[in-house]
Known about the structure:
- By secondary structure, this protein is of the alpha+beta class.
- The chain has helices at 6-20, 52-70, 73-76, 111-122, and strands at residues 25-31, 37-42, 82-85, 90-96, 99-105.
- It is built from four helices and five strands.
- A five-stranded antiparallel β-sheet has the order 2-1-5-4-3, sandwiched between helices.
- It starts with 5 loop residues before the first helix and ends in an 8-residue tail after the last helix.
Amino acid sequence: MISLNVEEYTSLEKRCNELLNDEQIRFAGVINKMGNLVAGGFKEGLEPFQSDEKQRMLYMQMVLEISMRREFDLDLGEINYAVSNRNKALMITIPLDDKIILVSSSPDASTQRIVGKINDVFYDPIGERK
Length: 130
């Protein structure tokens, strides 16, 4: 398994916590290409909708989904984000180097607002990773 150095972990954890300050965001995490949560988590005091095992399956599904979408990057351009709008949650995934950012918010949240917030936290104004 690929592990993070302390500096990268601290930076990612700080950014995830910044996202969790948004009242509509329930979960903000960074997942590696093996489907492991490497930074972030649920907002304090919130219970996940599913068991730990199902959460892990969800992480793996999100990694696979982004990986499959990247197969079309040459033809369609790089993927900016993917959204799944469910009855209980809006789920947004954004590629981040060899990892993905996963954010879950209330289902009535504005996708564009949440994506904008994620980009503000993780990328500088010219699109470079902070």
